[in-house]
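REVIEWER CHECKLIST
Item 1: Sequence provided? yes
Item 2: Single chain? yes
Item 3: Sequence as submitted:
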Amino acid sequence: MKVAAIIKSTHLNQQGFSLIELLVVLLIIGFGIGMVAVNVGLGDDDARSQAKQFANLSAMVADEAVINQQPWGIDIFRTNDAPANNGSNDEVFAYRWLQRVYWTPSEESNEQPRWLWLPVAPKEIEAELFFSSQLTLRLEMESIELEIGQKVPVEKKPENQKIEIKPDIYFWGNGEITPFKVQFYSRNNEQLLHTVSGDLLGRIALDLADDE
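Item 4: Structure as written out by the authors:
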């Protein structure tokens, strides 16, 4: 009898948690994972994907400039009107493609014909692309860090364009590009995640921070 009582008591103690207790534990675990996601911010896979996209698309546009003998450029800027913001005022980094075109004003205009850089969407590429709000970008030219300014609005008529739009990175028809380095940092902790670089010969590379 004593042996049976001991076994029964042990069995009762090993029955485990009730359904409510399990739900509470799962809720706590889920909350903890959510807090970690908030603290960590953008995942490394997402950051790498966006850096890789920037590198690949830049290489495609560089090839386009050579094939069509038509200069292209990239304008990197900061903006508050990213579609993913959903009405928030978060500032994000973004870039758009510029093409060098010869503009001829209308007859009634007093402006002179001239070359302009205008936003144009390359074939099968979006005109503007936005980085995650969890990323901060730094742009270097010849080891000198340049300030990434606010987006310059585009006027419908070029003669009304008071602030000239210029590329940060130039792609020329002979295959040369502006040597550059774009570094991707985590906005939360300023950790260097990835670097996209280009040299004068048109070679564009994506480097991991750990490999530098």
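Item 5: Key structural point noted by reviewer: Residues 1-40 form one domain.
Item 6: Recommendation: ____
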